[in-house]
Amino acid sequence: MIRPAELIERKRDGGELAPEEISELILGYARGEIPDYQLAAFCMAVYFRGLSSAETFALTDAMIRSGETIDLAAELGRKVVDKHSTGGVGDKTSLAVGPIVAACGVPFGKMSGRGLGHTGGTLDKLESIPGFRIELSHEEFVAQVKEVGLAIIGQTADLVPADKLLYGLRDVTATVDNVSLIAASIMSKKLAGGADAIVLDVKVGDGAFMKTLEAARELAEAMLELGRRAGREVVCVLTDMDQPLGEAVGNALEVREAITTLRGKGPADFTELALASSAHLLSLSDLELDHQAARKQAEQVVADGSALATYVRWVRAQGGDPEESALPVAPVVRSVAAARDGYVKRIGAVRVGVAALRLGAGRSAKEDAIDHAVGVVCKKKRGDRVQAGEPLAEVHARNDAGGAEAVREVLAAYDLADDPPPATPIVIDVVT
Amino acid sequence: MIRPAELIERKRDGGELAPEEISELILGYARGEIPDYQLAAFCMAVYFRGLSSAETFALTDAMIRSGETIDLAAELGRKVVDKHSTGGVGDKTSLAVGPIVAACGVPFGKMSGRGLGHTGGTLDKLESIPGFRIELSHEEFVAQVKEVGLAIIGQTADLVPADKLLYGLRDVTATVDNVSLIAASIMSKKLAGGADAIVLDVKVGDGAFMKTLEAARELAEAMLELGRRAGREVVCVLTDMDQPLGEAVGNALEVREAITTLRGKGPADFTELALASSAHLLSLSDLELDHQAARKQAEQVVADGSALATYVRWVRAQGGDPEESALPVAPVVRSVAAARDGYVKRIGAVRVGVAALRLGAGRSAKEDAIDHAVGVVCKKKRGDRVQAGEPLAEVHARNDAGGAEAVREVLAAYDLADDPPPATPIVIDVVT
After folding, report:
1. How far is CA A221 from CA A210, A238, A271, A286, B125, in A?
2. B271: three-class secondary structure by DSSP
3. What is the pLDDT of residue B116?
4. Which string of DSSP letters, residue by residue, matches A112-171?
């Protein structure tokens, strides 16, 4: 075996590593045989030199082989579709997409993550539903997908353990921000989870990890390439995260918004994204629908109430109370009033996300507890006309002091102008 | 305190850290509060982005403050001069320079290191002298410098512990090769050791760490700048390491060559380097000699035998037997014969160094034991005329098999040509 220091040196000098060399490095690290300081140096060398697409695939493959894999398609006897979002502020897409897709007859069994920092995680949102169990055994998970058509659970520790280790290391060594490492991290989990076809929602803008369309496109291309090499179908949607998605930011508030959207009364941008994502999933599924027919069917299950009914069955199956009235409510609700007349030109998504985080909706550190009731509701979105004194947003807080601080933060996040900004669609582009 | 990850990120992005930030990083690391994986990522970021001279000085200063410092000048009541070599093959310079300088009346108290890989260390050479003690207490060390004028000992663990830690980490993370980190490592030890004036021998060529004159000059400039900032006088000599220095490579063989040189009968290149280095040290000393007078005095103490007499007193003071006959002798001596007539065009220094290493003269790993008797003697040097069958070199081995292998290696290290190569002086340049 080649010494790890020599592999680090070769990458440092711009060389390419063979798949088996990357495999040795990653699996040796996962087994605890190669120390974290060597991986830290390797990741920093990768930050500066990049990885070729063959190296990125080798990395992804090695991470997958560090743990167990799931063959859901074999267990269900059907083609399996999955979705992933790179994360943003107010991103509750899975909560609407899951019921829509399942209501159309496509099984949707998904493993999700928790939020960290100003971006929320699907699991945290689900846990705001009283009684909801995010930990199911593998047998329970498969049985529920078969019976209800839908299950969303926490990712098991056995799946891609090397990614968990490596991400933790990258987080504290300033080596997160590399497109190959990000692509490998995301795709290793999707591939190990056994999806035959994957819809990737790459968020772009202030509230997203990818700040520019160029960076988002680069990540999308890297993930598409990994999908091609792994023989899976992948569609990337590049979507706007330059303002919070929908209106609600905060766990129970977002669950409520997902329910409203399944009733056909959700915010325009979130509704559009949920339907568009569902349509991509449906057209990749074994229903073999073209995109237009898939879109129609997604709209249909919302209109006829079957998506909402699926939501109710799903939540009950995982032990939760599906009633809106069961969701926790914050004791203090404050209005954020516009200081002038004008149009909403911009809503700083990070700023709103951080305001929600400080209210207690998210975690600054992994061990932080979450207050599921608190958050922000952005009543006015980009392009909306407002009058001075009119409510821009609502702050849902634990107490008066926290509410007052959040009101100031959210007000500062709103940028009002005399003229309306140019319209930006929620789905900026689709890359396949 | 700023999080280490933020400091790594700033360096990664090409920013400059404040002295107190570098200090936090290095001292936190030395105290075990900042983990090695963060320092590994930092060093790799430094590899790509470099350090400014202010940052390099802050690093040097922090490393010095990680341990104790010595004020030898105060203890001796005199200006203290010191020398350091960046290391090469056959580099026994301190063994000759120490006695010459001390014989001229300038106290020479030096802490040295061990060899690793194909370059030997002064301590290993000294330990080939039967009875020689490299570990003296600080009081013994100072007393001996006062009485004998000369002491060479191992570096104490209290001196610059952060450098030891950091070097060990850099060695296994492909981050050794950065001029700022090398300069800080060398100069931190010299400055902590209390030298007022320092002669730095920067080796250039195949057998040296710096392969090109340009790289050597860059390192010299970085160390001169650190000296300036620390208020010390520094002279850098750039010297040829494109063939072994002198003839002998191997511990006892090198001690014998140093004695021969102190008798005035050493190889031309080594004699010249010993005299030139001594002259630089003398002209920096409180004798206040100009370089020409210093050179004359160095030559004088060799010619009149007082340098050799100082050597004898010094070795005895440290418990060693100064007689040449006391040095260990290898049981097998094999001649390396020239395959053709011609001129020695080149002697691959690394190749000779590795041959000596394999014979047992050095260590591949820190815990390896050394055979002090074995090594290589390069009878013919670059520019020498040879006839087919004439001995180019001698191999001193533990056994026949090792000897035969070394003969092949050393023969391959010699490059013979029809015409003599252009002459290269041992001292290529002096930078101040």
Report:
1. 13, 11, 26, 25, 59
2. helix
3. 62
4. E---BTTB--HHHHHTTSTT------HHHHHHHHHHHSEEEEEPPTTBSHHHHHHHHHHH
Strand partners, A334: A395
Predicted pLDDT of residue A155: 82
Question: Using one digit for the tens of pLDDT, what is the confidence trace for B140-169?
Answer: 999 999 999 999 998 877 889 999 899 889
Residue A372: name the closest of A127, A180, A174 by CA: A127
Mean of the pLDDT values across residues A190-206? 92
Q: Which pTM value belongs to this model?
A: 0.86
CB pairs A-B closer than 8 Å: 76
Kindly list the distances between the CA atom of residue A229 and the CA atoms of A21, A69, A286, in Å, as whole numbers in the listed order: 18, 17, 21
Residue A87 or A390, more confident: A390
Summarised one tens digit per residue, pLDDT across range B270-287 is 999 999 999 999 999 999
Q: What letter would DSSP give residue A283?
A: H
Tell me the average pLDDT of chain A. Answer: 93
- Tokens read off for A153: 């659970």
Q: How far is A417 from chain B (nearest CA, A)?
A: 34
User: Distance between CA atoms of A394 and A376, rounded to whole angstroms?
Assistant: 6
The Cα–Cα gap between A56 and A202 comes to: 18
CB-based burial label for B35 (10 Å; 0-12, 13-18, 19+): middle
- Judge whether residue B329 has pLDDT over 90: yes
| Cα-to-chain-centroid distance, residue A263 | 22
Amino acid at B46: V
Measured between beta carbons, the chain B residues lying within 8 angstroms of A41 are 40-41, 43-44, 173-175
Would you place residue B369 in the very low, low, confident or very high pLDDT band (cuts 50, 70, 90)? confident
Residue-level pLDDT at A206: 87
Could you tell me the two tokens for B160?
A: 């610059």
| Beta-sheet strands, E only, within A224-273 | 233-240, 248-249
Q: How far apart are CA A247 and CA A379, in angstroms?
A: 6
Residue A346: pLDDT band (50, 70, 90) is very high
Task: Spell out which residues of chain B touch residue A40, defining contact as CB-CB under 8 Å.
Answer: 37-38, 40-41, 44, 173
| Sheet bearing A248-249, strands edge to edge | A248-249, A375-378, A391-397, A332-337
Catalytic: B52? no
Show the tokens assigned to A265: 């009364």
Predicted local confidence at residue B113, as pLDDT: 75
Whether A129 and A337 have beta carbons less than 8 Å apart is answered as: no
Q: Which residues contact B308 (CB under 8 A, 6 or more apart)?
A: B99, B259, B262, B263, B302
Tell me the catalytic residues of A. 84, 163, 170, 185, 189
**Residue A245, token pair as written in the block:** 């998605």
User: Nearest chain B Cα to A176, which residue?
Assistant: B9
Optimal mutation site among B12, B165, B173, B175, interface A, most CBs of chain A within 10 A: B173
Query: b/e per residue, A148-165, with b = 16+ CB within 10 A?
Result: bbbbbbbbbeebbebbbb
Residue in B237, B151, B252 with CA at minimum distance from that of residue B201: B237
Distance, CA of B250 to CA of B232 (rounded, Å): 34
A228: left (phi over 0), alpha (psi -120 to 50) or beta: alpha
From chain A, the residues in CB contact with B8 under 8 A are 44, 173-174
Determine how many CB atoms are found less than 10 A away from the CB of residue A208.
Answer: 26
Rounded to whole angstroms, how far apart are CA atoms A47 and A177? 7
The answer to whether residues A347 and A243 touch, using CB atoms and an 8 Å cutoff, is yes
CA closest to B171 among chain A residues: A5
Q: Answer whether A419's CB lies under 8 Å from A346's CB.
A: no
CA distances from B126 to B112, B120, B263, B335 (A): 10, 11, 18, 26
